[in-house]
Design a protein that fits this description.
The complex is a heterodimer of chains A (259) and B (274). Chain A has 259 residues and is mainly α. In chain A, 77% of the residues lie in helices and 0% in strands. The longest helix of chain A has 31 residues, at 227-257. Chain B is globular and about 55 Å long. The chains are: A mainly alpha (259), B alpha/beta (274). Chain A binds chain B through residues 2, 5-6, 9-10, 13, 16-17, 20-21, 86, 88-91, 93-100, 256-257, 259, and chain B through 67, 70-74, 92, 95-96, 98, 100-111, 115, 119-120, 122-125, 151, 164, 167.
Chain lengths: 259, 274
């Protein structure tokens, strides 16, 4: 029970830390729009390639869920930076020497980054809608898309926290995160239908948690969703979140062992 | 009122033994093939209500000792009990009984002083109302009331360090660890904080373990001084006892610096030790 209270208190602290730097808040809102407009314009005519997913849809409709997930994953990959800040000061050690639950410390950053990602996702969908995109999935489809956003954020925030506890430096954490996040972004159907990519890309995408979120979100937004596909991808994501959270908890032990 | 409560909590402890009891503590670090023995059979006993100053050259094992006692690090061998509880077997109980002020600042620069204290209090299990009341009380005592609503990143070094100590005190711990509380402060801020620590130790009758780079700090604050070198205790006693033992007839009264030089074979260099 106290772990839930601690998670709430620490999430509130993360919230204060973000909103007190207005530049970050503005950047968080502007960045997804840039992704959407940049990729939307750059690859606008790929929908005309024969065999591209869902003929008749605009490219904006195709990439909107992809950009929602990109924003979520890129954001969550930075989650560990607040752990490193706390380690650079004595805040991390002070919390670890207190009854603060380690799970609550992890969950609070995961929860806060999930909130940010959902707000950013709403911005992306709104901008896409203004650009003429229409999502037949309706409120249910959008709710399922955001379920995938939350799971994806939790997965990468937990990973970023684990890296932070092991690497203990911003440079190493960011380098490691980018090394993983960028390839995952391109080995997916976020901006390109993988049926038109090299065969191995499509194969790799099937094992890519980022692509699970993209597939689940995009499918949920169509008017005729294959709920079996959506459910399986969400299930895989949820399992990955559990495993990664367990690993990140283990990273606390590694941090202590080298303290 | 706080005094009464602290005493009651101490009295309720099973077997009201020493506040800190360390026996044969050993800790070895391995880094890049090199083996560094940080602690080599360290023994320590601190009675409740005592301020103990832990002195020693850099790498003597002061911080390692504090980290093990604060449940942040695990010893390779030996036992350590804080407030009657084993730090390896019962870390959760120990964490409720201690306050820990690390060498580095423990306050969050992006929260206000008040928010820092309320968060620390609530994590220690205080209700929202109790945490707010305790925060206001501590801010008042440390002269930070006017700065309570300001972000900590706007605080001076001395103000932030006072807030650190206040954070360590928020739940009225039985044992408080202060790891180099005044390092990096200017002389005025240091004298200011010394006065606060003195008042606090007397007022709350808690046990304080203080590591320091400053011999005059130990001389002024500590009831007991322990000098460690290469992971072992070289000598311990009250500052006066240690000076008495070194005193020879007709000679000038030795200072704690002389005691330190005598036992470690080194001059205590304040800057070099950092």
């Amino acid at each position: 029970m106290s772990a839930v209270v601690h998670a709430g208190l620490l999430t509130a602290r993360a919230y204060r830390g973000t909103v007190r730097i207005p530049v970050f808040a503005v950047m968080n809102l502007v960045q997804p729009m840039i992704w959407l407009l940049l990729f939307g314009q750059l690859f606008r005519s790929v929908v005309e390639i024969p065999g591209f997913a869902a003929p008749g849809d605009s490219y904006l409709e195709f990439i909107a869920p992809g950009v929602v997930m990109m924003t979520a994953m890129f954001g969550a990959a930075w989650a560990g930076t607040s752990f490193v800040q706390d380690m650079d000061r004595g805040v991390m050690d002070r919390l670890l020497a207190s009854p603060a639950s380690r799970a609550a410390m992890l969950v609070s950053t995961m929860a806060w980054y999930a909130v940010i990602a959902v707000v950013q996702g709403l911005v992306v969908l709104a901008v896409a809608w203004l650009g003429g995109a229409r999502f037949d999935g309706g409120p249910l489809g959008i709710a399922v898309l955001f379920a995938a956003v939350v799971l994806l954020t939790c997965l990468f925030a937990a990973m970023s926290n684990a890296f932070a506890l092991l690497a203990r430096s911003q440079e190493a954490l960011i380098g490691l995160s980018q090394l993983i996040v960028l390839p995952l972004m391109f080995l997916s159907s976020a901006v390109m239908d993988t049926r038109l990519s090299a065969g191995w890309v499509a194969d790799a995408a099937r094992f890519n948690p980022f692509d699970w979120a993209v597939v689940a979100g995009r499918e949920a937004l169509t008017g005729s969703a294959d709920w079996g596909l959506v459910g399986s991808r969400l299930g895989l994501l949820a399992a990955a979140v559990l495993v990664m959270t367990w690993l990140a908890t283990g990273a606390f032990r590694a941090y202590r062992a080298s303290a | 009122m706080s005094t009464v409560r602290t005493q009651a909590a101490t009295a309720a402890e099973p077997g009201t033994g020493p506040a800190i009891e360390v026996a044969g503590l050993t800790k070895t670090y391995r880094s890049r093939g090199r083996v560094v023995r940080a602690l080599d059979g360290l023994d320590l006993r601190v009675e409740p209500g005592t301020v103990l100053g832990l002195l020693g050259p850099n790498g003597a094992g002061k911080s390692t000792t504090v980290k093990i006692l604060a449940t942040l690090s695990a010893p390779d061998a030996g036992t350590a009990r804080v407030a009657g509880h084993d730090v390896v077997r019962d870390p959760a109980v120990v964490r409720r009984a201690i306050g820990y002020v690390a060498q580095k600042p423990v306050c969050d620069p992006m929260d206000t002083g008040h928010e820092n204290l309320v968060l620390a209090g609530r994590i220690q299990g205080l209700s929202r109302r109790a945490a707010r009341a305790r925060a206001a009380e501590l801010l008042e005592r440390f002269g930070l009331t006017e700065a309570a609503g300001r972000l900590v990143r706007t605080y001076s070094g001395g103000m932030a360090r006072k807030l650190d100590v206040a954070i360590g005190l928020v739940h009225r711990p039985q044992v408080l660890f202060l790891d180099e509380p005044t390092t990096g402060l200017d002389p005025e801020a240091r004298a200011d904080l010394w006065a606060e620590i003195e008042t606090m130790a007397r007022g709350e009758r808690m046990t304080v373990l203080l590591t320091t780079h400053y011999l005059d700090e130990a001389d002024r604050l500590a009831d007991q001084v322990v000098i460690v070198d290469q992971g072992r205790v070289v000598v311990s006693g009250t500052p006066d006892e240690l000076k008495d033992r070194l005193q020879s007839d007709g000679a000038a009264r030795p200072s704690l610096d002389d005691v330190y030089l005598h036992h470690t074979g080194r001059v205590f260099d304040e800057r070099g030790a950092a």
